[in-house]
Every structure is written in structure tokens, then in C-alpha cells.
Amino acid sequence: MSMTNFAISDTWRKLTKQQLGTYAEYFVKMRFTLQSFSVYSPEIDDRSIDFVVSPLGYDEHFYLVQVKSMRGPGYASVKKDKFRLSERWLVALAIFQGQDTPDLYLIPSTVWNTPDKCFVDRNFGPGRKSKPEWGIEATKPHLEQTLVSYRFDDQLGKLHPG
Fold first, then answer.
1. CA distance to 50, 65, 88, 121, per residue, from 41 (Å)
2. β-strand 63-71 against 51-55: which pairing, if any?
3. Whole-number pLDDT of residue 162
4. Number of other CB atoms surrounding residue 126 within 10 Å
5. How far is CA 28 from CA 34, 38, 52, 126, in A?
6. How far apart, in whole angstroms, are the C-alpha atoms of residue 46 and residue 3?
7. So where are the chain's domains?
8. Long-range contacts for 71-76 (Cβ within 8 Å, ≥24 apart)?
9. pLDDT, tens digit, for every residue of 108-123?
10. Residue 8 pLDDT more than 80?
């Protein structure tokens, strides 16, 4: 296939879920870097931290970032036993919808202090296979009404101290 006929958006359907997640993680890291953040990647991802970011010049001011990706509207979640509700913990949500770049959202974990229909609190009972989780119902109405206020570029300014 010649590169001139190659559309990036065509690849979203061809990528596995893991490949899409990896792409999303690197894409979000690049976006932070382009906005003057230092990005630090852990050696092992066993605590639901994909990477740490810090505004340049503020090394003591940092955020722990978990990246979630999906093809179009849907549902994403983080396990409660690995993800804390704190001003330092963020979810970066990448939604791939056919365009060349994903729609990005940056969500502070503190939204789950007051769950609603978009940011849900799921506590599964005893004997269930799934562990309790914080979820994002990224349905079309929620994208248009709730998540729009968490667009990545709009949230970045809130991460700089002072």
C-alpha cells in the first residue's frame, strides 16, 4: 500500500485493543510534552499508572496518569484497588472515531467523589468476577453534555500551579 493512499483513521479498525491502548498512551504523552510538561514512564505498570507528568519548572508538582482508549462512544473503567481519588490522579481518555487523531479528555479522579450518570461508581457484590471500579459512560449524550468540559486542552491550564 502506498503511503499516499494510507489514511491513519483506517488503521483504528485494524489495531488490536492492546495496540490501540499503546498508541493512545504514546499520543497522550506527546500531547503533554508539546504543552511543556515533563513526562516520566515507570519501568513496570502494576499500579495503574501509565506515566507521571509535571509542568516544566515545577518538578515537585506532579500528576499520575492512567490512559484509557476506545473506538467510538463506550465505557471505560479503572479498578478502585489500583486508582485513588486524589487531585494528583488523572484519567486521559482517548476516543478514536475515524479521524486522524483521537478526541482527548483529561479527567481528574476527584469527579468520582460525586458519581453521576457519566462518572459511575460500580461496587460489584461478593462472588462477582469483576472488582469494584470507577467508570466513564462515554455515550454520545455524555460526550456532548458532560465530557465536553473535560477536553484535554481545556484541562491542561488547570494543572499548572498558581
1. 7, 10, 16, 28
2. antiparallel
3. 62
4. 4
5. 10, 12, 11, 36
6. 37
7. 3-72+84-111+149-159
8. 71/12, 71/13, 71/20, 71/95, 71/96, 71/97, 72/96, 72/97, 73/138, 73/139, 73/140, 73/143, 74/138, 74/139, 75/135, 75/136, 75/137, 75/138, 76/135, 76/136, 76/138
9. 999 999 999 999 999 9
10. no
CATH class of 3-72+84-111+149-159: alpha beta
Q: Are 150 and 141 in contact (CB under 8 A)?
A: no
Do 108 and 90 meet the contact criterion of CB atoms below 8 Å apart? yes
Residues 66, 107 contacting (CB under 8 angstroms):
no
113: its cell numbers: 467523589
* pLDDT category of residue 53 using cuts at 50, 70 and 90: very high
Amino acid at site 71: R
